[in-house]
Specification:
This protein is α+β, with helices and mostly antiparallel strands. The protein has one helix and three strands; from the N terminus they run E-E-E-H.
Length: about 120
C-alpha cells in the first residue's frame, strides 16, 4: 500500500472471510471477483472567526452524501494558534463522518429493524 493508503479488512457476510481486493479466501469455490475502484469526494469548509473555528464537512460516497458540522473554540488563556483550532474542528468533523459511516455500514449489514 502507498504511504497515504489505509488498509481495512471486514468480516462481512459476503463469504470472503475478510479477504481484501476480491480474493477467494482460500475456500476453493467460486471465481475471482473483479477489483473495483471508487473515488469518494470530501469537502471541508473552514471558517475562522476570532477565537472560534467552524467546519462544514461534506462526504460524497458514491452518491451517498453525508454532512457534518463541528467547531472549536480557543481557551482565552491559550496563545492564539489558528492552525490548532483548524485541527480540532476538522478532526471533530471527520470523527463525526466516521461514526456516520459506521452506523450506515451496520444498518446495511444487519438490514432494517422491525418495530
Amino acid at each position: 500500500m502507498g504511504s497515504n493508503e489505509v488498509g481495512a479488512v471486514h468480516g462481512g457476510t459476503d463469504g470472503t472471510g475478510g479477504v481484501p481486493h476480491g480474493g477467494t479466501g482460500g475456500g476453493g469455490g467460486g471465481g475471482e471477483r473483479a477489483v473495483r475502484t471508487k473515488d469518494w469526494q470530501l469537502s471541508l469548509h473552514v471558517v475562522e472567526d476570532r477565537d472560534t473555528t467552524r467546519v462544514h464537512a461534506v462526504l460524497n460516497a458514491d452518491g451517498n452524501v453525508l454532512h457534518s458540522d463541528a467547531r472549536s473554540r480557543r481557551n482565552p488563556r491559550d496563545t492564539p494558534a489558528p492552525e490548532v483550532g483548524d485541527e480540532f474542528a476538522v478532526g471533530r468533523a471527520l470523527v463525526d463522518l466516521g461514526h456516520q459511516l459506521l452506523r450506515a455500514g451496520v444498518h446495511r449489514a444487519t438490514g432494517p429493524t422491525e418495530e
